[in-house]
Amino acid sequence: MKTKIKVHAPVFEVQKMNKKVKLELSTFLLGESHTAEVEIDFNNLLPFFDLTSNDVADFFLFTASIYGIDRFIERRRNSVDGWSRDFQIEFPVRNVSIWNSANAQIEKMLSFLTGDYWSINFNQAEYSFPSEPLKKEFSSNFSQVNLFSGGLDSLIGALDHLKSKPSEKIMLVSHYDRKMAKPRKDQSDLLNIINPIYGDQYVQIPSINVSLEKSTNKTETTLRSRSLLFSGMALLIAQSKNVSNIVVPENGSVSLNFPLSPSRRSACSTRTTHPTVLSLLSEIWIAFGFNTTINNPYEFKTKGKMVAKCKDQPSLIKMLKVSNSCGKRGHRAHWDSGSKSASHCGICMPCVYRRAAVINLNDDTTYGNNLNNLNFKKKKGQDMGAMLNFLKKPLTLKEIRNELIVNGIKDLSKLEKYANLVVQTRLELKQYINKFGNTELKKKVGL
Fold it and tell me: pLDDT tens, 321-341?
């Protein structure tokens, strides 16, 4: 059964000196009407809308709406198979013909990204926002726009550019959801350390809140569409400043998200920076006539290689503890007793990749779970149990290549590099288990 959702035209509001744009979502579920609002902080975004086209502005609002829809509709209660939802969306735009021309690619990209089925109808709408001049600090020329999420990978992406290209100024773009506000603090804490070193080489747009508000429906927490929201925000900034390059720094292991078992293919694996997502996004932008590219310069590097090759090692070591890579930092009730104040859970796959990447550094990061105390039959130990089985199973390059194709790799010219990346990832994880695992864990991976 399709879940039909109408996205209403954006409404600009000023509340207590705070500028906001709100997008109402409405639907009919299980015999009841439901509504919610996507709320976007416009205090710093508003001037950029004056400097770009309607299509770029609509694209940003579209990505914010997709993020809202992703949160608005709980998966399991509204899925067709226990996971995938079947959406039929009405979305308002100011140039219906150009959106219709790219519709097939948009639906394909969204389905691959979130693991859902998407059917989108674009409706004619007219709206406008007030004009506001660009702040002086944003008037410089920039060589590229970088995602700055507060995680270790985006930190390395920023440090690499700042250290190696001191004459090129970059724009750091961040977003957060006020209901999950810790990434905003991570970003702020990191920039407080970066600023005395590289303060004249970058500008950051203060982290933009995009959140789902006033939902009458139980919300979803998997958030597969977060990266698309960044892409839309970065495109808005880049196009308004005539910047041709957007960088999403992410280690290749997470980007590929090679399934730990056949049951974890497709919808059960996040694809936020998967090469196919970035490729489809680029195709959509070309169809729209946008002259901005988006890329991940670390697509063939493990997290360990990113750490080892970071161009500013002293700053990286200084900021390592401040960055946050955890995918389950909000689930502290399941952390070991006495570890509730830790900054990372320590056992989700982003944490494990991080711990494996920094085994040669003095890592002061605090972790909420001890790898050696896990019960792999219980829910919180399932990721680690699947990873251990994955590491023990012998895989040939041919098997890895075949699995990569099944898991969505389309560019066969890069297949060999991706396959070698999987091999390197497995070695990195085994080295971590060999150094920190007990006898039982080592046995589980064949060491």
Answer: 999 988 777 667 778 866 778
